[in-house]
Design goal:
elongated; 9 helices
């Protein structure tokens, strides 16, 4: 009886061995791309928030300069000695801030031009109110331009948060514009009665324009701050901002009433207007540091949240690498076991000592030479296959 030859095992091909590694790589590529994009996005957002904090520092340094410049202008227009000490100290402090972060905010050129104009005001005689009004107007225009430059270069104008966006606009745009315009309005109210009668009509038109220029940003400031409080998730913002905001709003309403021309004459009471301007100025000085502090707190909170996101990204990346490494190890180990099994001898089912059916209780077919030992044969001399079929007595014959 012919025994079928054992089937040869097929070795895995090269592509079969490389397929597990290719699958792991295919999983690793999109995961790595996603993690890299998340890392870059959080990094960009964090850099923007850190840069915005530099803008807040610069705006905080410009606030005393704005305050001192408006007070100096009012004194010069009214013929009083100008308080130079406060302005000089504010300029020195702002210069120190510009020397530290001005390069990054690209504000050094504008600050140098503004400082030159500020220093030129020290030698101006207080006996010419009209020229002082014009000269201080040019300097305050440069100061407002520097505010805009700082907001743009620091990224505050592109702030992604609703509450922080309203806060930066209020502290860096509306409030300085309202302060400067209110100071000019009060100073022009002092100069208008002194002008010749031929210029009274022009003075009234200028007063009307300055009144709009002062009340429009003040009204926008109130609306923006209330929008910031309504859109913010911070519980401290409303509690800290609303009280000084109400005070400022009442002062703005008083300024609007005192700057309105009297019926019939069209004249404005300079003393009443100056007092209203002073109240508005005082309320703004109380409100501005609160706005900047709340804005800085929101930026710090955002930076902390982005740092947590970056750590979570790192953790997710490490976890993904560990899982993919474990999967690769399993696939490699399975491939090695398959290669070892391919190199082993034939299995028991292919052994010549087993029956064709593979049942060990069936008689085995011996396919060796006649003299070879057979399975389960007693130890001793081998039997002749020619005489094995006869009994012992016939073999003896």
């Amino acid at each position: 009886m012919t025994v079928p030859a054992p089937r040869a095992r097929r070795r895995p091909s090269r592509w079969g061995r490389l397929l597990p590694l290719l699958l792991v790589t295919a999983l690793l590529a999109p995961i790595g791309l996603l993690l890299v994009q998340t890392w870059r996005q959080t990094g960009d957002n964090r850099d923007l928030a850190a840069r915005e904090r530099l803008g807040v520092q610069y705006l905080r340094a410009l606030a005393p300069v704005t305050d001192a410049l408006i007070e100096t202008q009012s004194a010069a227009v009214n013929g009083r000695p100008a308080p130079r000490e406060a302005l000089t100290r504010a300029v020195e402090d702002a210069a120190a801030v510009d020397a530290r972060i001005g390069t990054e905010l690209r504000s050094q050129e504008r600050w140098a031009g503004l400082r030159t104009k500020l220093e030129a005001l020290n030698g101006r005689s207080p006996t010419d109110p009209e020229s002082a009004y014009t000269a201080y107007g040019e300097v305050t225009d440069l100061l407002l331009a520097l505010h805009r430059k700082v907001r743009e270069s620091s990224g505050l104008v592109r702030d992604p948060g609703a509450d922080s966006f309203f806060l930066q606009g209020s502290a860096g745009q509306e409030l300085p514009e309202a302060l400067v315009a209110a100071g000019r309005l009060a100073d022009l109210g002092t100069l208008a009665p002194r002008r010749p009668a031929a210029e009274q009509a022009r003075s009234l038109i200028e007063l009307t324009g300055l009144r709009v220029a002062a009340l429009t940003p003040a009204t926008d400031l109130v609306d923006n701050l209330r929008s910031a409080v309504d859109s913010s998730e911070s519980t401290d913002l409303g509690a800290n901002v609303l009280t000084p905001l109400d005070t400022y709003q009442r002062s703005v309403e008083a300024l609007a009433a005192s700057s309105a021309p009297a019926p019939g004459t069209g004249a404005v009471d300079p003393a009443r207007l100056a007092a209203a301007r002073l109240d508005t100025h005082t309320a703004a000085l109380q409100l501005q540091p609160v706005i900047l502090s709340e804005l800085d707190a929101l930026l710090i909170e955002r930076i902390d949240a982005l740092d947590r996101d970056r750590w979570q990204t790192i953790g997710a990346g490490v976890t993904a690498l560990l899982l993919l490494g474990w999967l690769a190890a399993l696939l490699i180990a399975a491939g090695r076991r398959a290669r070892r099994r391919a190199t082993l001898p034939a299995t028991r089912a292919d052994s010549p000592d087993l029956s064709p059916s593979g049942d060990p209780w069936q008689p085995a077919i011996h396919t060796g030479r006649p003299g070879d030992p057979r399975p389960l044969q007693p130890v001793g001399a081998t039997r002749d296959p020619e005489t094995a079929q006869w009994g012992p007595s016939d073999a003896a014959r």
